[in-house]
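# step 3/5: fold
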Amino acid sequence: MLHYLHVSLDFFIRIVIFIWLATASRSAYKEFKNEDIEPWIKTRYKLTAIVSLLVSLYNINPFFLPWNVSSGDPDNLLSFIIFGIMSFVALIISIGFLLAWITPNWYKRYLNRGYEPLEDKRYTEEEIIEIIKYLGDYLAEKTKLSAPATRGALKLAIKDEIGPFKPLNQLSYGDLKKIINNSLKKRLTDLNSQNIENIIKEILKQLIRGQSLIMMLNF
């Protein structure tokens, strides 16, 4: 009796925790699925919801076994079969959470293949400021310049490209791409920075990443 009470409590706690995680992940996915953000972020929430459901049911096998039979007992065919099935499910859960939480770069690249934000996607002034901060910090790491200097270079590059009178809230993703490829590239060249072409390519990738983060913060 105590054995099955312990098993029931353990099962109930697991159900509560992981059903909540599955529900929260599904709700987040529904918020993001129609938004212009990187596909790997949407997949992360969808995968977390599915795997969490599997985890919530993972501890059900003790209900099918007598209390005095251990899981995977080779002398008990039912126990051995259930152990094999649950081991396979555990492998799926492990791989699922690995891809959802750690998300290796090769997996991100695979999910993001062919993705690019809409050229006419416009940002608010606050979002532009956050993107400048995000890209400036990344650029500082790559060029060994200070973060204030790289953020300043980005702000000046924006003025070089669009002039001093166009409001920041009229900038689009396409505008930012053009600024990075033209004015920012020229300013980095003037600073005698090394590997300019590679840095520009990486900054453009970070622009995609940054706009996804900004979009998520808005929810």
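# step 4/5: annotate
The chain is about 70% helix and 0% strand.
# step 5/5: archive (pending)
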